[in-house]
């Protein structure tokens, strides 16, 4: 590193991560710096990063990081920060697109006009944009006749889900057929998003709409570049959330939607989420700016478009209601050692409801929760479970049913 007096560098800072500085002197193994925040500090040379000279810096940052003279961490962060201040949330690093979450709606960036602009435009000619990445892969597929992949990665809340939706929106734009019919393949592709989000997303401390699963979305095109089908594979849903949450997180959105659904909620003897143990472990029931009742309608509509029959839809919501009732079953110690019985009338009611909704025999459900069958060479032995073990099997059943429903 060329460290001389007057050299422009970045120095680490406890609060700002990095701060711009200039070398003013050398003190033994250390260098003395004057920072842009007006401090004089000492630092080891190996801890410093070189910085573009002020006069070389473009006012609004550069749209491709490869244009930076020094491609180091502070340089990258500083460039992103400057662009972000001007609402330029996208920046290239060669063919990689970096998106910084704007945490505000930017509709002008994603309208049809923008999609038209990016359609067929050489990569890098227009400002960095997620549509450009989608377009370049679409064209590569058409020209090379080979499948293309776009990988979207980032930490929780970074914007992966939104970005994926924008990519899908663009691909359905360039690969769609005439609009009109609600049940075209591209409509189905797009409506898979609200559906998956209802069942696989939840509020976390970092993101009100956090995907609690991974997904691989495959969009298939015919030889003319028209969408012909799609497949979505999901991975590793966070099962524990179904039975255990902490404030201010929430369970999966679909539960709150169902509770707010009016007639359907009544039909399944549901009420406010605060009545259900799987939801009231956290006192956060609402999401800012979101109406659960409206979201319920959206989920229903998405199910219609995706092609889930009304009968299946009923079965899905019935299962969700059953899980909520299941969670309200409590046990108290039975007469025999290490055994358990249904705690009270309230639990008996929820037990009956869960059994009815699961369409199973209530005694069988009770036996499943409060006993365990052990296979031995002499035959099977039924062993009673204590309260804690019975609650654990209740939760295990809820998690398994939910996870299978999600996979289905
Ligand atoms: N391009 C964007 N424009 C506007 N808002 C955005 C954009 N990207 C993200 N957001 C906002 O940030 C929130 C979080 O983004 P998103 O859910 O996509 O994150 P994520 O990376 O998928 O997180 P997780 O890993 O938790 O699922 C969104 O709900 C949205 O409000």
TrEMBL record:
BP terms from Gene Ontology: actin filament organization; actin filament-based movement
GO cellular-component term (any): membrane
Kindly list the positions annotated as binding ATP: 154-161
Identify one Pfam family in the record. Answer: Myosin_head
Q: Keywords, A to Z?
A: Actin-binding, ATP-binding, Calmodulin-binding, Motor protein, Myosin, Nucleotide-binding
Q: Which residues form the Myosin motor domain?
A: 60-408
Checking InterPro entries in the record gives: Kinesin_motor_dom_sf, Myosin_head_motor_dom-like, P-loop_NTPase, SH3_Myosin
Domain of life where this protein originates: Eukaryota
Q: Where is the Myosin N-terminal SH3-like domain?
A: 4-53
Any one GO molecular-function label of the UniProt entry: actin filament binding
The record's SUPFAM superfamilies line, in alphabetical order, gives:
P-loop containing nucleoside triphosphate hydrolases
What's this protein's family per the entry?
Answer: Belongs to the TRAFAC class myosin-kinesin ATPase superfamily. Myosin family.
Query: What is the protein's given name?
Result: IQ motif, EF-hand binding site
> In which organism is this protein found?
Corchorus olitorius
List the lineage, top down: Eukaryota, Viridiplantae, Streptophyta, Embryophyta, Tracheophyta
